[in-house]
């Protein structure tokens, strides 16, 4: 198959060819050694070999020299990586073919998924050392100095499904970042206890000091994020007590630079290093959606809204009244956006301390879905001059914090949507891995969990492969400070 290494005419060429021959032999032996566990007979399976060397996105081949540093995206004969990457019951699922779009034409073989219950997490987190090791919180053994110098903060809001919180948290977890968990006050005690178990095992993950009973579309949803922001501002740099269990001997001495707020149904499309490089390009600019004109849904803030308990369900609901709502204070211009964004530390400090920002927050108490107006209004009103704000036309810039699909306007190949938002499935994977956004919203653990499984492997491979980060697109963004 391979040509014999010929005798060279010069010593210099001889050394070069000798090195090449040794490298070829080394790669073949490495490929043989790594592939052996995958076949039940203990021999290399040639049908498995091509997929074995692929990393998670685009079917690009990983460099063989990094075989000890990266866990590959596997085909149907994958070795068992226990519970540290993806979902254990789906380790034989062919994520390479799913990411390359083969699921579009013919369903790929899958398997039932046994989910971890809230009680499971309560039990498993009683032994924190074992939990961190087995369930993937030490899977990123090293971080770059660039990441250590640029810590990030995250808010994660949840009501149920701690197993999905775990999948998200594990994907974005680094010991030098900061993570605030807000468990809805209406959630079951087991959900709170399970999330508390996660936080107890990870020094830089904490439960918010003040919980909110969240009403859908209500002020409590906005207040929950702000409560986490307050806690983040008052916490010092993380100091993980389990550093000796990993090779993370370096710790960050820098305060976090950006905060990203998430629900537990989101999942990252970028690695931590990619996030850091992109946010360094942002250079203090926020990434907050801006909507004006006919899509503003003006009745949400033009009339006062109040809270009433439903006579049948007993749930608190927000209801529009006929009472006009006065315009916002300080002659502020209202802009609509998303509940989610990427906020610079200076912007978070501004919204917590500036008197005008606090006045606007008080005005938002009678607004429906105020989280879709508060961040956007602060960010886009030129009179406020908020740190990292944007004074140009709000609708004329991209928004890259999170990708959500709104069918039929947007592509939703899974065919499932809730409240107008696509619930991503396996068939959506090819478009997701090519997006420029930082996160995708949303996923359900009980709907095609193969999508989360494959994205987790994809993120893992990108993190381990140390490939160059594509930053040209982000450098051209109109809202980036130069």
Task: Provide a brief overview of the structure.
The protein has 482 residues and is of the alpha/beta class. 33% of the residues lie in helices and 11% in strands.
Describe this structure in words.
This protein is α/β, with parallel strands linked by helices and 482 residues long. Helices cover 33% and strands 11% of the residues. Strands 3-2-1-4-8 form a five-stranded mixed sheet, with helices on both faces. Helix 4 packs parallel to helix 8 and helix 12 crosses helix 13.
pLDDT averaged over residues: 83
Helical/strand content category: alpha/beta
Q: What is the percent of helical residues?
A: 25-40%
User: Stretches where pLDDT falls below 50 for ≥5 residues?
Assistant: 1-80, 237-250
Question: SSE string, helix = H, strand = E?
Answer: HHHHHHEHEHEHEEHHEEEHHHEEEHEHH
Separation of the first and last Cα atoms: 54 Å
Strand percent estimate: 5-15%
Work out the radius of gyration.
25 Å
The count of strands amounts to 12
Query: Number of helical runs?
Result: 17
Q: What is the overall silhouette?
A: globular
Main beta sheet: 5 strands, mixed
Lateral arrangement of strands in the main beta sheet: 3-2-1-4-8
Signal peptide: 1-21
Protein name: Beta-1,3-galactosyl-O-glycosyl-glycoprotein beta-1,6-N-acetylglucosaminyltransferase
InterPro entries: Glyco_trans_14
Subcellular location: Membrane
């Amino acid at each position: 198959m391979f040509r014999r290494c010929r005798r060279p005419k010069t010593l210099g060429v001889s050394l070069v060819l000798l090195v090449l021959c040794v490298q070829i032999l080394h790669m073949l032996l490495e490929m043989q050694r790594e592939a052996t566990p995958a076949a039940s007979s203990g021999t290399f399976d040639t049908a498995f070999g091509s997929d074995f060397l692929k990393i998670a996105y685009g079917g690009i081949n990983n460099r063989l020299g990094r075989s000890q540093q990266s866990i590959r995206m596997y085909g149907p004969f994958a070795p068992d990586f226990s519970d540290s990457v993806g979902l254990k019951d789906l380790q034989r699922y062919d994520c390479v073919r799913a990411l390359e779009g083969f699921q579009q034409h013919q369903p790929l073989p899958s398997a039932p998924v046994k989910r971890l219950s809230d009680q499971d997490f309560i039990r498993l987190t009683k032994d924190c050392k074992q939990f961190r090791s087995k369930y993937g919180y030490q899977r990123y053994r090293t971080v770059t100095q660039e990441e250590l110098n640029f810590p990030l903060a995250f808010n994660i809001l949840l009501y149920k499904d701690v197993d999905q919180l775990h999948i998200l948290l594990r994907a974005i977890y680094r010991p030098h970042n900061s993570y605030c968990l807000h468990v809805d006050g209406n959630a079951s005690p087991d959900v709170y206890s399970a999330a508390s178990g996660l936080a107890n095992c990870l020094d830089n993950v904490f439960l918010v000091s003040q919980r909110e009973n969240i009403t859908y579309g209500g002020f409590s949803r906005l207040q929950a994020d702000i409560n986490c922001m307050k806690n983040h501002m008052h916490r010092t740099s993380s100091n993980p007590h389990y550093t000796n269990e990993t090779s993370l001997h370096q710790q960050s001495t820098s305060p976090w630079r950006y905060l990203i707020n998430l629900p537990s149904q989101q999942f990252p499309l970028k690695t931590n290093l990619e996030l850091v490089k992109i946010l360094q390009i942002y250079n203090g600019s926020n990434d907050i959606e801006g909507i004006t004109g006919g899509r503003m849904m003006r009745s949400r803030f033009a009339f006062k809204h109040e809270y009433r308990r439903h006579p049948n369900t007993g749930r608190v609901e927000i209801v529009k009244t006929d009472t006009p709502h006065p315009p916002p204070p300080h002659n502020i211009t209202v802009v609509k956006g998303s509940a989610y964004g990427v906020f610079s530390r200076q912007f978070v400090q501004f919204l917590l301390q500036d008197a005008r920002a606090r006045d606007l927050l008080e005005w938002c108490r009678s607004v429906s879905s105020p989280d879709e107006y508060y961040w956007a209004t602060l960010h886009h009103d030129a009179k406020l001059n908020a740190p990292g704000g944007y004074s140009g036309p709000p609708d004329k810039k991209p928004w890259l914090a999170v990708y959500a699909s709104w069918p039929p306007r947007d592509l939703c190949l899974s065919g499932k949507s809730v409240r107008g938002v696509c619930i991503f499935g396996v068939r959506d994977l090819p478009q997701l891995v090519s997006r420029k956004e930082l996160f995708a919203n949303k996923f359900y653990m009980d709907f095609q969990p193969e999508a989360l499984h494959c994205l987790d492997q994809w993120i893992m491979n990108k993190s381990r492969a140390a490939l160059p980060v594509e930053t040209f697109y982000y450098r051209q963004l109109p809202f980036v400070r130069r």
